[in-house]
Amino acid sequence: MGNDGGSIPTRRELVKExxxxxxxxxxxxxxxxxxxxxWSTDPITLKTLSLPVVSDCAGKLYNKDTILEYLLPSDxxxxxxxxxxxxxxxxxxxxxxxxxxxxxESGVDSVAERSAEREVWVCPVxxxxxxxxxxxxxxxxCGHAFAGxxxxxxxxxxxxx
Length: 161
Hints:
It comes from Lepidopterella palustris CBS 459.81. This protein is of the alpha+beta class. 29% of the residues lie in helices and 17% in strands. Strand 4 (103-108) and strand 5 (117-122) form a beta hairpin. The longest helix has 17 residues, at 24-40.
């Protein structure tokens, strides 16, 4: 041992950059990405959400046909197990989900493609866009979706529509 030209590296040399916590900006970006994904993608099939949309008791959005396929008996056990992992036992029948009724306004997506038309879900009372970054609520008996601020300000016993 020695005089062979080798060296023993120290910890400082092996670990060039120490693990550090995410900054506030990085945390906000991560949360925004997660929210936009949750508002646009069905977590079971990973397809784009399209009307009719249903929600479980945790507020996750799913395509209605995806939930129907999950509840119907099928031979594909692997897909059923995968769906059960995502649903976490919250959906056992159609009574466990509420069909969310969004008001649609077609708009231009200026970020991705300026010429492409896309569906924009809006609050029927205030006209504000519902989606990532906006607080939105739906009423359980009827399923109408509104901006959270509208429901707080208007104290009605029934549906606002």
